[in-house]
Design brief:
Blueprint lengths: L12 H39 L10 H28 L2 E4 L4 E8 L2 E8 L7 E3 L9 E2 L11
Antiparallel strand pairs: 1-2, 2-3, 3-4, 4-5
Helix pairs in contact: 1-2
Length: 149
C-alpha cells in the first residue's frame, strides 16, 4: 500500500472487537463456502477433462455437469456478496480459505491493520500495511491506537 491509502473507516481495537461477532459469522460462512467452491471446482475440472476423452459413457453426465457449474456460479456469487458485507463494515478480507481479515486502524500516527484470523477469540495482532500475515505483531499496551473515523 502507498501513502495514499485512505480507508473508509478506521477502527480502534475496541471497535474492531465490538464488530467481531458479525465479522466472525460472515467469515465462518466465507471459509466454509470457499472450501466447498475450491473442492467442487477441482472435481468439475477433473470431470470436464475426462469428458474430453470422448468416452461413450460421459455424455450422460453433461446435464449434471452443467447443473453443477450453475450451482458453483451461484455459490461464487454468494461468496462475493459475503465479501461485500465485510467491505460495507470497513473490514478487508485477505484470505477466504483461511478466514484472514484486516481492520484498518491508526497506530502511532500511521495507518496499520488490526489483524484477525478465523478461530481467534478477539483482535490480538496488528501489522504494517505492506507486511501481511507474516508481519503480524502482538498488540502491545504501549502502542497507541487512535479512535476510528
Amino acid at each position: 500500500m502507498t501513502n495514499t491509502y485512505r480507508p473508509a473507516k478506521l477502527f480502534t481495537v475496541a471497535e474492531a472487537n465490538a464488530t467481531l461477532p458479525l465479522v466472525k459469522a460472515i467469515v465462518r460462512d466465507i471459509v466454509a463456502l470457499s472450501s466447498s467452491i475450491i473442492d467442487r471446482r477441482s472435481r468439475l475440472d477433473y470431470l470436464k477433462s475426462r469428458q474430453r476423452t470422448n468416452r461413450p459413457d460421459v455424455p450422460a453426465y453433461a446435464d449434471e455437469l452443467a447443473d453443477a457449474e450453475r450451482q458453483l456460479a451461484r455459490d461464487i456469487q454468494q461468496l462475493q456478496e459475503y465479501v461485500a458485507e465485510l467491505e460495507e463494515l470497513g473490514v478487508e478480507l485477505k484470505s477466504a480459505s483461511e478466514g484472514l481479515v484486516d481492520f484498518p486502524s491508526m497506530m502511532d500516527g500511521r495507518i496499520v491493520y488490526l489483524c484477525w484470523k478465523h478461530g481467534e477469540p478477539e483482535i490480538q495482532y496488528w501489522h504494517e500495511l505492506d507486511a501481511g500475515f507474516a508481519g503480524r505483531q502482538p498488540l502491545a499496551a504501549e502502542s497507541t491506537v487512535s479512535p476510528g473515523t
